[in-house]
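Trying the structure run again after the queue cleared.
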Amino acid sequence: MSTATATEKVTITLPKAVVDIVRAKVSSGEYASESDFVEDVILGSALLSEPDSIGLEHWIATEGVRRYDAMKADPSRGLTSEQVFANLDIEPEDVHKAG
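Done. Tokens:
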């Protein structure tokens, strides 16, 4: 997407996880270039068409990656499925019934 008639080069610094998302969008063919992706997000069309998707991808790339790394470093931090269900207001059998 290139809606601007005049362009000017700027340099930005992003967290590596965000850069990985940008590059994945380009590699998948969804965007022709990193600049096209950034322009699309800044102009709002990506945010307006998929706000939950963009927000989720950002969370995964930042907080999700941080939590994953922490779990890999110390698996004892995790909970068993029984512990998770004990904290929920739903029984495991009900989840399987709902399909």
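The chain has one domain: 16-98. Worth checking whether this holds up in the mutant runs.
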